[in-house]
Specification:
Blueprint: E1 3-9, E2 18-20, E3 22-26, E4 30-31, E5 43-47, H1 48-61, H2 63-68, E6 82-85, E7 97-100, E8 104-111, H3 122-126, E9 128-134, E10 136-139, E11 144-145
Parallel strand pairs: 5-6
Antiparallel strand pairs: 1-2, 1-6, 3-4, 3-10, 5-9, 7-8, 7-11, 8-9
């Protein structure tokens, strides 16, 4: 079963996002209160499987340092709005729709994106972007149907 692992937001563009209990998706806008709402990339999605893959790759390079320094990758660290589990986001394709919870429907508009600043960011490589077709409240644990 595919589900929503986390909902993350930030008021400003260019900053990591923080998990919130729930948020409102507004049609043709995005997450109400998020810095990217109303832009071309209304909502960003990243699979927890992608986050875990990156963490394991980093850990394989120097596991002792990773553990001794308490390195972790938390939801929102890659500036993603929605963290999913159980759906291969990259295979969905442009135009694919995802129902989140009972009401909200997202339509994939972009897969990955160009890097816009130096450093490593997971969202340009394995994230997808969507527009809100139908709004509604979303929260951690919501079922995803695609």
């Amino acid at each position: 079963m595919a589900e929503l692992v986390a909902v993350c937001m930030s008021e400003e563009r260019g900053s990591t996002k923080k998990p919130v209990r729930q948020a409102m998706l507004r049609e043709d806008y995005g997450l109400v209160g998020d810095g990217h709402a109303g832009s071309v990339r209304q909502v960003s999605l990243l699979a927890v499987e992608s986050i875990n893959k990156l963490f394991k790759a980093l850990e394989s390079i120097n596991p002792e340092r990773m553990h001794s320094q308490g390195v972790e990758i938390k939801p929102g660290d890659s500036a993603e709005n929605l963290v999913t589990e159980g759906v291969d986001l990259l295979s969905l394709g442009i135009g694919a729709r995802i129902r989140v919870g009972g009401e909200a429907i997202l339509e994939i508009t972009e897969i990955g994106k160009a890097f816009h600043r130096p450093g490593f960011y997971l969202l340009p490589l394995e994230g997808v972007f969507a527009r809100v077709v139908c709004g509604g409240m979303v929260r951690q644990g919501d079922r995803l149907v695609y």
